[in-house]
């Protein structure tokens, strides 16, 4: 799975969690052209593998399953956790016990009522030894799961764990009455799911399309759009042509498509474009075990030599923002006041000199102890943005006397042979970040074993302590304090040079109304999207 | 002849297992595992969870043991279950009996490739013959140049150009997929028309590249035959040029083409990866591509095994065809 894949995955997860936000005044402010009917066609590169979320590792599956299933909780547009199938919850003062109260009267698409027993069933299934799922870790932290009554359940943790609340997002809601006593990997439930969500599966033709019909009894109100169709189109160029020919209504654009190819009268008249930051960032990471990169001044010199805005302008056509740490700007954990490294090659040269790097033989490359400063940036093949970013960095570092080589590797080789074995000097990669700010696995000094994610071997006792503190409290102010401090330290020590946060740039057909862009994207209120009667394109037979 | 055929059939068995053994090892040599798709670079996943998944898929066992297990299943014609989330049997993904024939992947690819092969043959053979007969003429030069343009043009590029012209600008043909969204509501004639419209561009693109090879092959084969003594004899006997070419030369020039036809049998199910992905056609090429990208070993092995079997069968067909066409081989 490459980073863009994870990114996608993350989006889908987002979509999932935010899937549908409540809007109590909807009917009061309803404009006259609200109407039921019509269909939306979305292009998808990959086909879902299964619609049981806990078994799916691919974004296409989560995308579709997110329309069919709900979570216990989700995020709202302010990035706060709110109830989805849960009406409310209480957390014990020591943070160890969470008691959820579920909504009453929610029904599975086959009419059976959804209860706490279903959650217990989903929980038991995900932690079962025999369930092949990569997502069980958060649930294994639960010491005790109790169903108190039909609408209430209580989970007790071994120790307070702040990301626990959001882990009750989307993975474990399964209909007990249909699956109890069965092996979920052997049933055809993954291809014929029954959920509680705004849409239900109508048909799935492998390799061609997945067709969803609206759930008229959806507990948040019947969705306006009667049908949602995913068309499998594995090639992005073909997808863009389909968009122009009217074959699809929604797709994610590339920066060049956004700025140049859709800047025509045709697109302006027929489509609406959106833009918001993706929850991810691209970085240049150093192997901190390498003697040259042990010195903080060298890393800082490199930071001063790189012009992030130049990279954003050239690589993303301006569709992104500079990253200063591992969080997305304008979210609550983001600290806007950390040390920033404005482009300053002069300062970079000074810092290198201070660290003992000087061009003694006049060949334009700085040396120390007789060895010239040369290193290789590894990145993965097939990601043009990363390759271009590496090239710009190469050019800028040459200006301060550092010679950089770029090596492109096939993704699996890159991860298995180079990252896991720590055979790199510097890497250009990206992380997608969850909405919960916990980044224990990436920055904690205990996470440096093979296959773990602190592969740059960063170790700072204070950061370790703050990471632990941040995940042990539910108090948002305390967490904020911890993560603000972590960002200050990271910005000073620079184990990574945080480069940019790219924007998501989806395009949607103009006939589709009711889209309200928010920091978390556009799909969170999909069940409120509609097409006015006069603009409807498809007639749907019930 | 029968004993020759039996001998050839028996020879196929070790060859077949040799191919599967090599394929199995080569697939496992490539870095990355099927579980990587679920776990790689995802901080939520611990090494323990990763190991558990590997055990679940049997990936913790030595490769030779895994191959043994695979072999044990395959002799019972069991291709195993796909590693993707749906865990469907591989054979069901390739040939789902519950679906209408037209929606089964193997059939779709087979149909498109048969049609384009047919197209290639009926266009390339006349081109080859007429070029040979008029060697070095302006006609010969023009056809040679144009088939080579077709050969050199990347098929994905040609496909995109055609989609842009016929799909977007002229709006005559559907761009991708096999059926329109309103397919189910169409009458039978509408359904047939719909599918034909969807197939026009893919079949054209997949034929275009193949024309060059076959027409050049036909041309050189024809040229060789035209130099033979019996053709000279035929001419000396006063037969018309038409009779010389079509009765005497053509039949003999066609012999090597029979071999080619036999060897193209595996191509009928493979070789479609690029255009199936571009045109969004749910065939074997697309399935194979997805399988490789997700390291779905059972699926990859299933498709490779079918491919290997077809290659061997194609070879036998080529032999039989040759024997039927050429009495000298029959005599041996």
Automatic annotation (TrEMBL), chain A:
Residues 80-447 form the Solute-binding protein family domain. GO terms for molecular function: peptide transmembrane transporter activity. It holds the Pfam family SBP_bac_5. GO terms for biological process: peptide transport. Keywords: Signal, Transport. Transmembrane segments: none annotated. One of its GO terms (cellular component) is ATP-binding cassette (ABC) transporter complex. InterPro entries: Peptide/Ni-bd (IPR030678), SBP_5 (IPR039424), SBP_5_dom (IPR000914). Belongs to the bacterial solute-binding protein 5 family. PANTHER family: D,D-DIPEPTIDE-BINDING PERIPLASMIC PROTEIN DDPA-RELATED (PTHR30290:SF38), PERIPLASMIC BINDING COMPONENT OF ABC TRANSPORTER (PTHR30290). This is Peptide-binding protein.
UniProtKB/TrEMBL annotation, chain B:
The keyword Transport applies. SUPFAM superfamilies: MetI-like (SSF161098). The chain crosses the membrane at residues 12-31, 106-127, 148-175, 195-214, 253-279, 299-325. GO terms for cellular component: plasma membrane. It is found in: Cell membrane. The keyword Metal-binding does not apply. Keywords: Cell membrane, Membrane, Transmembrane, Transmembrane helix, Transport. Pfam families: BPD_transp_1, BPD_transp_1_N. PROSITE patterns: ABC_TM1 (PS50928). GO terms for biological process: transmembrane transport. This is Peptide ABC transporter permease.
């Amino acid at each position: 799975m490459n980073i863009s894949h994870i990114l996608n995955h993350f989006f889908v997860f987002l979509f999932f969690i935010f899937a549908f936000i409540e809007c109590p005044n909807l009917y009061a402010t309803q404009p006259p052209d609200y109407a039921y009917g019509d269909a939306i066609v979305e292009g998808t590169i990959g086909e879902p593998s299964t619609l049981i979320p806990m078994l799916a590792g691919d974004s296409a599956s989560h995308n579709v399953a997110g329309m069919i299933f709900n979570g216990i909780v989700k995020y709202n547009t302010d990035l706060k956790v709110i109830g989805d199938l849960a009406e409310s919850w209480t957390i014990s003062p020591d943070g160890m016990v969470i008691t959820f109260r579920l909504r009453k009267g929610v029904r599975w698409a086959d009419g059976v009522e959804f209860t706490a027993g279903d959650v217990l069933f989903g929980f038991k299934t995900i932690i079962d030894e025999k369930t092949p799922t990569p997502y069980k870790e958060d649930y294994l932290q639960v010491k005790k799961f109790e169903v108190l009554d039909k609408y209430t359940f209580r989970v007790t943790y071994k120790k307070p764990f702040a990301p626990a609340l959001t882990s009750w997002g989307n993975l474990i809601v399964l209909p007990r009455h249909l699956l109890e006593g069965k092996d979920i990997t052997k049933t055809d439930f993954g291809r014929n799911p029954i959920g509680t969500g705004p849409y239900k599966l109508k048909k799935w033709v492998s390799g061609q399309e997945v067709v969803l019909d609206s759930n008229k009894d959806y507990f948040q109100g019947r969705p306006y759009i009667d049908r949602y169709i995913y068309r499998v189109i594995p090639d992005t160029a073909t997808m863009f042509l389909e968009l122009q020919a009217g074959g699809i209504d929604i797709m994610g654009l590339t920066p060049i498509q956004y700025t140049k190819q859709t800047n025509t009268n045709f697109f302006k008249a027929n489509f609406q474009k959106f833009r918001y930051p993706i929850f991810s960032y691209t970085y240049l990471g150093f192997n901190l075990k390498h003697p040259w990169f042990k010195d903080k001044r060298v890393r800082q010199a490199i930071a001063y030599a790189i012009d992030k805005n130049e990279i954003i302008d050239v690589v993303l056509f301006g569709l992104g923002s500079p990253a200063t740490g591992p969080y997305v700007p304008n979210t609550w954990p983001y600290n806007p006041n950390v040390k920033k490294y404005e482009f300053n090659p002069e300062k970079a040269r000074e810092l290198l000199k201070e660290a003992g790097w000087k061009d003694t033989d006049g060949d334009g490359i700085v040396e120390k102890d007789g060895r010239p400063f040369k290193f290789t940036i590894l990145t993965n093949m097939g990601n043009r943005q990363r390759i271009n970013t590496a090239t710009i960095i190469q050019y800028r570092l040459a200006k301060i006397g550092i010679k950089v080589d770029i090596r492109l590797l096939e993704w699996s080789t890159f991860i298995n042979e180079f990252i896991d074995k720590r055979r790199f000097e510097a890497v250009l990669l990206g992380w997608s970040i969850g909405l919960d700010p916990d980044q224990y696995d990436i920055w904690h000094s205990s996470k440096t074993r093979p296959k773990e994610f602190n592969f740059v071997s960063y170790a700072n006792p204070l950061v370790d302590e703050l990471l632990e503190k941040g995940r042990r409290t539910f108090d948002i102010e305390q967490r904020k304090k911890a993560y603000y401090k972590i960002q200050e330290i990271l910005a000073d020590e620079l184990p990574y040079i945080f480069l940019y946060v790219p924007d998501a740039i989806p395009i949607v057909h103009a006939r589709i109304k009711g889209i309200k862009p928010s920091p978390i994207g556009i799909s969170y209120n999909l069940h409120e999207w509609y097409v006015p009667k006069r603009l409807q394109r498809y007639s749907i037979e019930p | 002849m029968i004993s020759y055929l039996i001998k050839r059939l028996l020879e196929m068995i070790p060859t077949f297992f040799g191919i599967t053994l090599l394929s199995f090892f080569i697939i496992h040599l490539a870095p990355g595992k099927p579980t990587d798709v679920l776990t790689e670079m995802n901080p939520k996943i611990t090494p323990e969870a990763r190991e558990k998944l590997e055990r679940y898929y049997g990936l913790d066992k030595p490769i030779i043991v895994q191959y043994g297990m695979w072999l044990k299943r395959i002799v019972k014609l069991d291709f195993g279950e796909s590693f993707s989330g749906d865990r469907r049997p591989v054979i069901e993904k390739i040939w789902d009996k519950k679906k209408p024939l037209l929606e089964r992947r193997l059939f779709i690819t087979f149909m498109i490739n048969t049609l384009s092969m047919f197209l290639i043959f009926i266009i390339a053979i006349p081109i080859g013959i007429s070029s040979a007969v008029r060697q070095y003429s302006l006609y010969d030069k023009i056809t040679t140049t144009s088939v080579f343009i077709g050969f050199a043009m990347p098929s994905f590029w040609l496909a995109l150009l055609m989609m842009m012209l016929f799909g977007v600008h002229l709006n005559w043909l559907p761009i991708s997929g096999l059926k329109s969204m309103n397919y189910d509501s169409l009458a039978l004639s509408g359904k047939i028309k719909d599918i034909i419209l969807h197939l026009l561009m893919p079949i054209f693109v997949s034929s275009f590249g193949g024309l060059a090879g076959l027409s050049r092959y036909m041309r050189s084969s024809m040229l060789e035959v035209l130099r033979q003594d019996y053709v000279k004899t035929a001419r000396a006997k006063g037969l018309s040029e038409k009779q010389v070419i079509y009765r005497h030369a053509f039949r003999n020039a066609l012999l090597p083409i029979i071999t080619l036809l036999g060897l193209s049998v595996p191509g009928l199910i493979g070789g479609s990866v690029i255009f199936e992905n571009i045109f969004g056609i749910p065939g074997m090429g697309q399935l194979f591509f997805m399988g490789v990208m997700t390291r779905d070993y059972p699926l990859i092995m299933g498709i490779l095994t079918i491919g290997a079997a077809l290659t061997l069968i194609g070879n036998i067909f080529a032999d039989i065809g040759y024997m039927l066409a050429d009495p000298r081989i029959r005599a041996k």
